[in-house]
Amino acid sequence: MSIEKSKQAEELLQQHNQAHIIKFMNNLNEKERELLENQILSIDFAQMKELYDSTKKTVEIKENKIEEISYFDKQKLGSSKKEQLDELGARIVSSGKYAVVTMAGGQGTRLEHPGPKGTFKLDVYGKGKYLFEILIDNLKEANKKYGVVIPWYIMTSQQNHDETKEFLEKHSYFGYDKNSVILFKQGELPLIDHNGKLLIGKNKLIKLASDGNGGTFTSLRTSGALANMKERGIKWVFIGGVDNVLLKMVDTTLLGLAIEQNVQIASKSIPKASPKEKVGVFCKMNGHPKVIEYSELPEKMAEEISSSGELKYGESHIMCNLFTIEAVEKISKEPLIYHKALKKNAYLDETGKEIIPQDLNAYKFESFIFDAFPFFDDIAILRGKREDDFAPVKNKEGIDSPKTAKELYEKFWKKVEK
């Protein structure tokens, strides 16, 4: 690192009230200091100030701006209508214009699994299946049905990229064409404490955390994955998570509906189980589609009943989303709003001593994939069924656990195979 760059890094820290890092740097060797200074020069301090300022504000939902959103119920479409939509969707898939993105940047921490979440083995049919394996089965079935090999893009994180790659290589991609599997990394943002100070981790670098699933769009563009899609002639992109073992990544009814409705984005929903269920729900805000997080929806609105006798805001977002390639590109260039989450994070103080906090001490900032929905005038929503479409593996026990996912997965496939 040149003296000039070193001086530039120190000036940035002084200017943005981060002088504690300068003191910390003075105890580092030349190589450690250079790595930290390079990292400092890559940080958008103006953005970090904005994010810190946002922690002092509360989210306000003005009820008069929110309206109920329309949807199509897959169970009530009728066989001829469903066939018509399936045919529209099948044309896209079979012509090689469809790609799938799996967001797999998370670790299996809540499951007490010591690795990337996709490498978690679900105890199905006695021998078990990895989450990645379940997704690949889903893709292979679609490939066989439509006579193609669907390109599969996997978003990893800085933390789990190498381990994910090694796992897939070790298992020979579970029989998938490895030339059609593209890994790319998710973006990251620094953590900050209650006073807006950046934290230093045990690796003697500023602590970073993934920037949320809303960062998928920018990461697709900056990694070159979006350009790869365009080279392949992709027109529609499905984006879903790694942990829903009933996720239909190639749902031609949903795709056909998006085409018929002439929209750039589409999503599958399931009815909310109860007003208090902790899920984001679809609505229209200021005339644009939106998902409101359960923590941001006033209780009165959560319990409101529509003219059909169902919850007015009862369509749950289950991370089952479709976008045109143009929509992905558009979103990738737009700044999304960030949501704050207060976490407990150990860090090194300016002398290099590790501090283990007793309380929540650090803000993590994430954008969500549905924060992109308001950029569009409309969205096609297809209501599915919980028992057919939603069996997430999130918690070690209880709701959305391996036990509940196993039961739903085995029950679904038993029904399909009859």
Helices and strands in order:
Layout: H1 3-15, H2 19-25, H3 30-42, H4 45-54, E1 66-67, E2 72-73, H5 79-94, E3 98-103, E4 121-122, E5 129-130, H6 131-146, E6 152-156, H7 161-170, E7 181-185, E8 188-190, E9 192-193, E10 208-210, H8 216-223, H9 225-231, E11 236-241, H10 252-260, E12 265-271, E13 281-285, E14 288-292, H11 299-302, E15 315-324, H12 325-332, E16 339-343, E17 347-348, E18 354-355, E19 362-366, E20 380-383, H13 386-389, H14 402-417
Parallel strand pairs: 2-20, 3-6, 3-11, 6-7, 12-20
Antiparallel strand pairs: 1-13, 4-5, 8-10, 9-19, 11-15, 12-15, 13-14, 16-19, 17-18
Helix pairs in contact: 1-3, 5-10, 8-12
CATH topology of the largest domain: Spore Coat Polysaccharide Biosynthesis Protein SpsA, Chain A
Distance between the amino and carboxyl termini = 66 Å
Strand residue percentage: 15-25%
**Cα shape:** globular
User: Sheet with the most strands?
Assistant: 8 strands, mixed
- What is the averaged pLDDT score? 94
How many DSSP H or I helices? Answer: 14
User: Residue ranges: pLDDT <50 for 5 or more in a row?
Assistant: none
Q: Please, how many domains?
A: 2
Question: What share of residues is helical?
Answer: 25-40%
Structural class estimated from helices and strands: alpha/beta
Cα gyration radius (Å): 23 Å
The CATH fourth-level homologous superfamily of the largest domain: Spore Coat Polysaccharide Biosynthesis Protein SpsA, Chain A
What is the C-level CATH assignment of the largest domain?
Alpha Beta
CATH architecture name of the largest domain: Alpha-Beta Complex
Tell how many strands the DSSP assignment holds: 20
Strand arrangement within the widest β-sheet reads: 2-20-12-15-11-3-6-7
